[in-house]
Amino acid sequence: MLRSLVGSEMCIRDMSDGEGESEGEGEGEEVLQEAEIKLERKEPWSLWERHLEYEAVDRVLEDLLKANPQCSELRLRRGLAFRDGKLETWNLSQCDLSRLPESFGSVQIGVDMSDEKSTFTLSAGVSSSGCLFLNNNHLSCLPRSFGSLQVEGDLFLDKNFLNKNQVPELPHVKGEVRVD
Length: 180
Description:
By secondary structure, the chain is α/β, with parallel strands linked by helices. The chain has helices at 27-49, 53-67, 73-78, and strands spanning 2-6, 9-13, 80-83, 86-91, 108-109, 132-133, 142-143, 150-151, 155-156, 177-178.
């Protein structure tokens, strides 16, 4: 497996894709990028910690739009579902996303799953409460912070340019992780 930085993303690729990189190339730049990532990460993480979900989502949306200028804010917001001030579900399926910003790892999705009123079912019988839908996009890399993502339900990454080897361990995703 090959790990490399692309902007503020860490791409994880199979060695079989033929891509490689020269040793020592861009080491100083990589250290600088890591310092920038730490600064970027601080703000949205602290907003989630202080239960300021609306503000945290606004910050992540701002970063999503910078990383994906082809997307519209309205389209990204359309999939948001809040309940009692908490982000319950975020459907970003078919939003033409090609990159996720480093701040995306701060996202926390889910409600108390024991609350029967908070869960509704999609036509395929999938409970959508606490789910994050990133399927049907153009994602080929995930940010370093992706392993910090907190999702109470399922995480949908299928129909992107990702495979299972590119998805890091996700200890804070309680449901199923779906990848092609």
